[in-house]
Amino acid sequence: MYGLLAVALAGFGAQLVDGSLGMGYGLTSSTLLIAIGLAPAFASASVHFAEIGTSAASAYSHARLGNVDKTVLRRIALPGAIGAFAGATVLSGLSTAAARPWASTLLLILGIYVLFRFLRHRKVALKRGRPGTRFLAPLGLIGGFVDATGGGGWGPVTTPALLANGRMAPNRVIGTMNAAEFLVAVAASAGFIIGLGFAALDWRILVPLMVGGIIAAPIGAWIAHRLPMRVMGVTVGGMIIFTNSFTLMKAFDVPSDVVTPVLIAEGAIWLTLVAVVVTQHLRSRRAPDDSPATVEV
Protein backbone atom coordinates (compact mmCIF):
# COMPACT_ATOMS: atom_id res chain seq x y z
CA MET A 1 0.00 0.00 0.00
CA TYR A 2 2.74 2.45 0.98
CA GLY A 3 4.66 1.52 -2.18
CA LEU A 4 1.68 2.37 -4.39
CA LEU A 5 1.22 5.67 -2.56
CA ALA A 6 4.90 6.48 -3.11
CA VAL A 7 4.51 5.81 -6.85
CA ALA A 8 1.39 8.01 -6.99
CA LEU A 9 3.20 10.81 -5.16
CA ALA A 10 6.12 10.46 -7.57
CA GLY A 11 3.68 10.75 -10.49
CA PHE A 12 2.09 13.81 -8.88
CA GLY A 13 5.44 15.52 -8.32
CA ALA A 14 6.78 14.63 -11.76
CA GLN A 15 3.68 15.98 -13.55
CA LEU A 16 3.62 19.11 -11.40
CA VAL A 17 7.16 19.92 -12.56
CA ASP A 18 6.44 18.86 -16.15
CA GLY A 19 3.20 20.80 -16.43
CA SER A 20 4.63 24.00 -14.96
CA LEU A 21 8.17 23.94 -16.43
CA GLY A 22 7.75 21.79 -19.55
CA MET A 23 9.97 18.86 -18.61
CA GLY A 24 10.56 16.22 -15.97
CA TYR A 25 7.73 13.67 -15.98
CA GLY A 26 9.33 10.90 -18.03
CA LEU A 27 12.85 11.22 -16.65
CA THR A 28 11.70 11.48 -13.03
CA SER A 29 9.24 8.59 -13.28
CA SER A 30 11.62 6.33 -15.23
CA THR A 31 14.41 6.94 -12.72
CA LEU A 32 12.10 5.92 -9.87
CA LEU A 33 10.89 2.75 -11.61
CA ILE A 34 14.42 1.66 -12.53
CA ALA A 35 15.52 2.35 -8.95
CA ILE A 36 12.88 -0.06 -7.59
CA GLY A 37 14.09 -2.81 -9.95
CA LEU A 38 12.16 -2.47 -13.23
CA ALA A 39 14.17 -3.09 -16.43
CA PRO A 40 14.71 0.12 -18.48
CA ALA A 41 12.54 -0.97 -21.44
CA PHE A 42 9.68 -2.01 -19.13
CA ALA A 43 10.03 1.19 -17.08
CA SER A 44 9.84 3.28 -20.26
CA ALA A 45 6.77 1.36 -21.45
CA SER A 46 4.95 1.90 -18.13
CA VAL A 47 5.84 5.59 -18.06
CA HIS A 48 4.59 6.18 -21.60
CA PHE A 49 1.30 4.41 -20.94
CA ALA A 50 0.82 6.47 -17.80
CA GLU A 51 1.72 9.56 -19.80
CA ILE A 52 -1.24 9.00 -22.13
CA GLY A 53 -3.54 9.88 -19.24
CA THR A 54 -1.38 12.58 -17.65
CA SER A 55 -0.56 14.34 -20.93
CA ALA A 56 -4.23 14.29 -21.99
CA ALA A 57 -5.20 15.94 -18.70
CA SER A 58 -2.33 18.40 -19.02
CA ALA A 59 -3.19 19.25 -22.65
CA TYR A 60 -6.81 19.95 -21.69
CA SER A 61 -5.78 22.10 -18.72
CA HIS A 62 -3.26 24.14 -20.74
CA ALA A 63 -5.71 24.61 -23.63
CA ARG A 64 -8.42 25.94 -21.30
CA LEU A 65 -5.97 28.54 -19.97
CA GLY A 66 -4.83 29.61 -23.46
CA ASN A 67 -1.31 28.16 -23.15
CA VAL A 68 -1.46 26.13 -26.41
CA ASP A 69 -0.46 27.44 -29.85
CA LYS A 70 -2.46 25.20 -32.20
CA THR A 71 -0.35 25.99 -35.28
CA VAL A 72 2.91 25.02 -33.58
CA LEU A 73 1.15 21.99 -32.08
CA ARG A 74 0.18 20.71 -35.53
CA ARG A 75 3.70 21.24 -36.88
CA ILE A 76 5.56 19.41 -34.11
CA ALA A 77 3.19 16.74 -32.74
CA LEU A 78 3.18 14.42 -35.78
CA PRO A 79 7.00 14.41 -36.26
CA GLY A 80 7.28 13.83 -32.52
CA ALA A 81 4.95 10.84 -32.74
CA ILE A 82 6.91 9.39 -35.69
CA GLY A 83 10.18 9.74 -33.78
CA ALA A 84 8.68 8.17 -30.66
CA PHE A 85 7.22 5.21 -32.56
CA ALA A 86 10.54 4.58 -34.31
CA GLY A 87 12.44 4.81 -31.04
CA ALA A 88 10.08 2.40 -29.29
CA THR A 89 10.07 -0.26 -32.04
CA VAL A 90 12.87 -0.43 -34.59
CA LEU A 91 15.53 1.53 -32.75
CA SER A 92 14.83 0.96 -29.06
CA GLY A 93 17.45 -1.78 -28.90
CA LEU A 94 20.21 0.70 -29.76
CA SER A 95 22.05 2.39 -26.95
CA THR A 96 21.90 6.18 -26.79
CA ALA A 97 24.50 6.32 -24.01
CA ALA A 98 27.28 7.41 -26.37
CA ALA A 99 25.24 10.30 -27.73
CA ARG A 100 23.95 11.45 -24.36
CA PRO A 101 26.99 13.60 -23.38
CA TRP A 102 26.82 15.44 -26.71
CA ALA A 103 23.10 16.04 -26.38
CA SER A 104 23.49 17.19 -22.78
CA THR A 105 26.28 19.58 -23.78
CA LEU A 106 24.04 21.17 -26.41
CA LEU A 107 21.13 21.42 -23.97
CA LEU A 108 23.44 22.89 -21.32
CA ILE A 109 24.48 25.63 -23.77
CA LEU A 110 20.83 26.30 -24.62
CA GLY A 111 20.01 26.43 -20.90
CA ILE A 112 22.73 29.03 -20.29
CA TYR A 113 21.44 31.09 -23.20
CA VAL A 114 17.83 30.92 -21.97
CA LEU A 115 18.85 31.79 -18.40
CA PHE A 116 20.90 34.85 -19.36
CA ARG A 117 18.39 36.02 -21.97
CA PHE A 118 15.63 36.27 -19.38
CA LEU A 119 17.95 37.33 -16.57
CA ARG A 120 19.55 40.19 -18.49
CA HIS A 121 16.45 41.99 -19.73
CA ARG A 122 13.65 43.10 -17.42
CA LYS A 123 11.45 43.42 -20.49
CA VAL A 124 11.87 40.65 -23.07
CA ALA A 125 10.91 41.28 -26.70
CA LEU A 126 9.66 38.22 -28.60
CA LYS A 127 10.51 37.78 -32.27
CA ARG A 128 7.68 38.08 -34.76
CA GLY A 129 5.93 35.06 -36.23
CA ARG A 130 5.91 31.42 -35.23
CA PRO A 131 8.68 28.80 -35.50
CA GLY A 132 8.58 27.26 -38.98
CA THR A 133 8.09 23.64 -40.01
CA ARG A 134 11.76 23.36 -41.06
CA PHE A 135 12.68 23.98 -37.43
CA LEU A 136 9.81 22.16 -35.72
CA ALA A 137 9.73 18.93 -37.77
CA PRO A 138 13.33 17.79 -37.05
CA LEU A 139 13.02 19.02 -33.47
CA GLY A 140 9.91 16.87 -33.04
CA LEU A 141 11.57 13.81 -34.59
CA ILE A 142 14.61 14.10 -32.32
CA GLY A 143 12.54 14.85 -29.22
CA GLY A 144 10.20 11.91 -29.85
CA PHE A 145 13.05 9.50 -30.51
CA VAL A 146 14.99 10.55 -27.39
CA ASP A 147 11.79 10.36 -25.35
CA ALA A 148 11.07 6.75 -26.35
CA THR A 149 14.60 5.41 -26.11
CA GLY A 150 15.47 7.17 -22.87
CA GLY A 151 12.19 6.80 -20.97
CA GLY A 152 11.75 10.56 -21.13
CA GLY A 153 13.19 13.53 -22.94
CA TRP A 154 10.46 15.19 -25.00
CA GLY A 155 10.35 18.25 -22.75
CA PRO A 156 14.10 18.55 -22.07
CA VAL A 157 14.79 18.53 -25.84
CA THR A 158 11.92 20.63 -27.21
CA THR A 159 11.30 23.18 -24.46
CA PRO A 160 14.79 24.77 -24.32
CA ALA A 161 15.04 24.80 -28.12
CA LEU A 162 11.76 26.69 -28.47
CA LEU A 163 12.61 29.10 -25.64
CA ALA A 164 15.96 29.83 -27.28
CA ASN A 165 14.16 30.38 -30.60
CA GLY A 166 12.52 33.40 -29.00
CA ARG A 167 9.21 33.40 -30.89
CA MET A 168 6.93 32.07 -28.16
CA ALA A 169 6.29 33.11 -24.57
CA PRO A 170 7.40 30.49 -22.02
CA ASN A 171 3.85 29.58 -20.96
CA ARG A 172 2.90 28.95 -24.63
CA VAL A 173 6.03 26.82 -25.15
CA ILE A 174 5.28 24.72 -22.08
CA GLY A 175 1.56 24.37 -22.80
CA THR A 176 2.09 23.46 -26.46
CA MET A 177 4.80 20.89 -25.70
CA ASN A 178 2.61 19.33 -23.00
CA ALA A 179 -0.24 19.05 -25.52
CA ALA A 180 2.03 17.54 -28.20
CA GLU A 181 3.32 15.04 -25.64
CA PHE A 182 -0.05 13.27 -25.71
CA LEU A 183 0.47 12.12 -29.31
CA VAL A 184 4.10 11.28 -28.57
CA ALA A 185 3.03 9.10 -25.62
CA VAL A 186 0.38 7.31 -27.70
CA ALA A 187 2.87 6.57 -30.51
CA ALA A 188 5.58 5.37 -28.13
CA SER A 189 3.11 3.16 -26.26
CA ALA A 190 1.97 1.58 -29.53
CA GLY A 191 5.59 0.88 -30.40
CA PHE A 192 6.27 -0.73 -27.03
CA ILE A 193 3.21 -2.96 -27.38
CA ILE A 194 4.44 -4.14 -30.78
CA GLY A 195 7.95 -4.73 -29.47
CA LEU A 196 7.28 -6.03 -25.96
CA GLY A 197 3.58 -6.89 -25.72
CA PHE A 198 1.23 -6.08 -22.85
CA ALA A 199 3.43 -8.14 -20.55
CA ALA A 200 5.71 -5.10 -20.41
CA LEU A 201 3.14 -3.24 -18.32
CA ASP A 202 2.85 -3.52 -14.56
CA TRP A 203 -0.62 -2.14 -13.86
CA ARG A 204 0.12 -1.90 -10.13
CA ILE A 205 2.71 0.74 -10.99
CA LEU A 206 1.10 2.24 -14.08
CA VAL A 207 -2.27 3.12 -12.50
CA PRO A 208 -1.03 5.06 -9.43
CA LEU A 209 1.60 6.76 -11.59
CA MET A 210 -1.14 7.92 -13.96
CA VAL A 211 -3.57 8.93 -11.20
CA GLY A 212 -0.95 11.04 -9.43
CA GLY A 213 -0.08 12.81 -12.69
CA ILE A 214 -3.71 13.47 -13.63
CA ILE A 215 -4.35 15.12 -10.26
CA ALA A 216 -1.29 17.37 -10.69
CA ALA A 217 -1.98 18.32 -14.35
CA PRO A 218 -4.36 21.28 -13.81
CA ILE A 219 -2.17 22.65 -11.02
CA GLY A 220 0.92 22.61 -13.24
CA ALA A 221 -0.97 24.31 -16.09
CA TRP A 222 -2.22 27.03 -13.73
CA ILE A 223 1.33 27.67 -12.48
CA ALA A 224 2.63 27.96 -16.06
CA HIS A 225 -0.19 30.39 -16.89
CA ARG A 226 0.26 32.59 -13.84
CA LEU A 227 4.04 32.86 -13.51
CA PRO A 228 5.53 36.03 -15.05
CA MET A 229 7.40 35.34 -18.30
CA ARG A 230 10.81 36.38 -16.98
CA VAL A 231 10.46 34.36 -13.78
CA MET A 232 9.51 31.30 -15.81
CA GLY A 233 12.40 31.80 -18.26
CA VAL A 234 14.97 31.98 -15.46
CA THR A 235 13.40 29.01 -13.67
CA VAL A 236 13.36 26.80 -16.78
CA GLY A 237 16.86 27.88 -17.84
CA GLY A 238 18.21 27.01 -14.40
CA MET A 239 16.51 23.62 -14.46
CA ILE A 240 18.03 22.83 -17.88
CA ILE A 241 21.51 23.72 -16.60
CA PHE A 242 21.07 21.77 -13.36
CA THR A 243 19.81 18.54 -14.96
CA ASN A 244 22.26 18.48 -17.87
CA SER A 245 25.31 19.31 -15.76
CA PHE A 246 24.39 16.31 -13.59
CA THR A 247 24.03 14.13 -16.71
CA LEU A 248 27.44 15.25 -17.99
CA MET A 249 29.19 14.64 -14.68
CA LYS A 250 27.60 11.20 -14.47
CA ALA A 251 28.60 10.39 -18.07
CA PHE A 252 32.23 11.28 -17.37
CA ASP A 253 32.31 9.39 -14.05
CA VAL A 254 32.98 12.45 -11.90
CA PRO A 255 33.37 11.32 -8.26
CA SER A 256 30.31 11.76 -6.10
CA ASP A 257 32.23 13.87 -3.58
CA VAL A 258 32.67 16.41 -6.40
CA VAL A 259 29.20 16.05 -7.95
CA THR A 260 27.31 16.73 -4.71
CA PRO A 261 28.89 20.11 -3.82
CA VAL A 262 28.70 21.25 -7.46
CA LEU A 263 24.98 20.47 -7.60
CA ILE A 264 24.38 22.14 -4.23
CA ALA A 265 26.20 25.27 -5.45
CA GLU A 266 24.25 25.28 -8.72
CA GLY A 267 20.96 24.83 -6.88
CA ALA A 268 21.76 27.68 -4.48
CA ILE A 269 22.68 30.04 -7.33
CA TRP A 270 19.59 29.00 -9.29
CA LEU A 271 17.22 29.66 -6.37
CA THR A 272 18.94 32.99 -5.66
CA LEU A 273 18.47 34.15 -9.27
CA VAL A 274 14.80 33.12 -9.20
CA ALA A 275 14.36 35.08 -5.96
CA VAL A 276 16.04 38.11 -7.54
CA VAL A 277 13.77 38.18 -10.62
CA VAL A 278 10.67 37.60 -8.47
CA THR A 279 11.66 40.57 -6.31
CA GLN A 280 12.30 42.73 -9.38
CA HIS A 281 8.94 41.73 -10.83
CA LEU A 282 7.08 42.66 -7.65
CA ARG A 283 8.84 46.04 -7.58
CA SER A 284 8.06 46.68 -11.26
CA ARG A 285 4.35 46.18 -10.63
CA ARG A 286 4.39 49.26 -8.41
CA ALA A 287 5.80 51.36 -11.28
CA PRO A 288 4.45 49.83 -14.54
CA ASP A 289 5.86 50.83 -17.91
CA ASP A 290 3.46 50.28 -20.81
CA SER A 291 6.06 50.34 -23.57
CA PRO A 292 4.51 48.77 -26.72
CA ALA A 293 7.82 47.40 -28.01
CA THR A 294 8.27 44.85 -25.24
CA VAL A 295 6.36 42.17 -23.41
CA GLU A 296 5.62 42.57 -19.71
CA VAL A 297 7.40 39.91 -17.68
Protein described:
The protein has helices spanning 2-21, 25-35, 40-64, 70-88, 100-120, 133-150, 154-165, 170-196, 203-226, 229-251, 256-284. It is an all-alpha fold. It has one domain (2-111, 129-226). Helix 1 (2-21) runs antiparallel to helix 2 (25-35) and helix 5 runs antiparallel to helix 10 (229-251). Residues 291-297 have low confidence and may be disordered.
Number of helices: 11
What portion of the residues fall into strands of 2 or more residues?
under 5%
Principal-axis shape: globular
Note the main sheet: none
Find the count of extended strands (DSSP E, 2+ residues).
0
Class by SSE composition? mainly alpha
In whole angstroms, how far apart are the ends? 44 Å
Bin the helical content: over 70%
Radius of gyration: 19 Å
Q: Structurally, how many domains make up the residues?
A: 1
Mean pLDDT: 84
**Poorly predicted sequence stretches spanning 5 or more consecutive residues:** 291-297
How would you spell out the order of helices and strands? HHHHHHHHHHH
Characteristics of this structure?
single chain; 297 residues; 11 helices; 0% strand; globular
What is this structure, in a nutshell?
The chain is mostly helical. 77% of the residues lie in helices and 0% in strands.
